[in-house]
Here is the input.
Amino acid sequence: MKRWVPVGLLLLAVALSLYPLEATGYGVRVMLQLFMWIALAQSWNLISGLTGYVSFGHVVFFGTGAYASSLLIVKAGLPWPLACLGGGVAGALLALVIGWPCLRLRGPYFAIAMLGLNEVMRVIVSYYEGLTGGGNGLSLPTLDASLAIYYAMGLVAAGVTAVTYAILTSRFGLRLMTIREDEVAAEAMGIDTLRYKLYALMLSAIGPGIVGGLSARDQGYIEPISVFPLIMTITMIVMALFGGKGTIWGPVLGATVLFFFQEAVWARFVYLHQLLFGAIIVAVVLLMPRGILGVLQQKYNLPRTI
Amino acid sequence: MVGQVVISGLLAGSIYAMVALGLGLIFGVMRVLNVAHGPLLMLGAYTTFWLFQRFGLNPYLSILVSMPLLFLLGLALQRVLVRRVVDAPELSSLLLTFGVSIALVNLAQLAFTSDLRSVEYLTGSFLVGPFAISKPRLAACAFAIAITAASFVFLRSTRLGKAIRAVSQSREVAQVCGIDVQRIHLLAFGLGSALAAAGGSLVAVMVAIQPEMGQVYTFKSFLVIVLGGAGNYPGALLGGLLLGLVEQLSSLFLTAQVNEAVAYVLLVLVLLVRPTGLLKGRV
Here is the structure.
């Protein structure tokens, strides 16, 4: 059984890389967005699923990455792949600056501080009109790169998932999970909790930073309200939660199921969209807070690294 | 100039204090941060608007309708949903109340449309010496002070109020003393929602009413209870007035757009420098 997992993943990777040859432009876009959501949900899982610190403003790294890489493209003339990596760096730097003070806060206080940070960033970006275009937004030079962006998004999604696997099977991951279960005990065991929480937050900010850049390049236009929406944070949380937070494949599963559900069902209910989403959130929280994989894990005694 | 800022700040702050006391009650008793607090305020504002529009009811009298109405809605929310996540990790209660919040906003959009509404009742200002005091704000401040004072009397002197304070100090000890904790949770959520409704009815006369008007109050209220010290009810009063003053003061130097962020920056600063709040609360 265990031997077949790498083979299956390899087949999946080959199928997905051949997919654009057969698919329509719309089909490629849909998959590209799915990759984006997987990367986002998985990144949130890295900090919040593993350490238990709820980042209620994770989209701030997405927005920061989007603006950083757009500015690198527009003002510095960098090629977009490099600029998107720059978006990842910007995300990690912001995580360092903000995590160092905020990760000392516990419980709902950290969650709300992150939420506030997102609002502050949105206002800052709107304020520096000379650089960012303010509320008018920022247009990128036209370029049709959706195929390249498809592969790049896929790589980021796979990369973040691989990092999660590497962390979950390492001593670093054990430290993070110890913090989640009992932070005081972790400290008593000699774990420098702030340091490891900070590493986790920075790692979890790189993915959204790059994805933000890629998404900006793909859309060709960004504005403050489109890249810092609170609802995006909530969506990635619900995806990770639905699949199973703190697991490797949970966020992938949750993002896939909810994303296709959204494409297939919600699009028909334009007016009830938010109401339905609210109901889904409530249902997930009340009925399956451990997520699909969490339930299966408990029921069938599956390994921690699933 | 400074005098004007102080007056405007205190007028705005008294409403913040009342609304935040509602959020603080819920947070203090259950450690649940009710993200739907702002949307509940929005429902209060719509109650006032419709009563004014349809029946010409005095907006200040409509508080007598909006508070009981939202008290009942709060009871229902607590009874059906929130009760189940009180002891869960904070992620559950944050997400759950967020789900309720966007559902309420969406329902309001469907039922009332997103048009901006207003209650044109009191307009204009009193001129006192060099200062201008807006009439609706003064009236709102007076009602907010009265309602807040009544809440404090209730918390301080009645058996139920004492039970609420006991549960927010220690649920276990309160339970051992024979207090029905579930019932106190229910009551706290109902009262918290009613205070949000009162806030909604009062701001209805001053600002445009629309389904998304409430969200910003959730955050400001949380800032106020952190400023005052979580679980410290008089602290909410101080925090509210302080937030009103700071916002007015910063509006002198900052554009309206940036001024929105002042509350957020302030919150992060307070959390870092003095997480127990100005008056001592629990972290």
Q: What stands out?
A: Chain B touches chain A at residues 31, 33, 81, 84-85, 88-92, 94-96, 98-107, 109-110, 219, 222, 226, 255, 257-258, 260-261, 264-265, 267-268, 271-272, 275, 283 (CB under 8 Å).
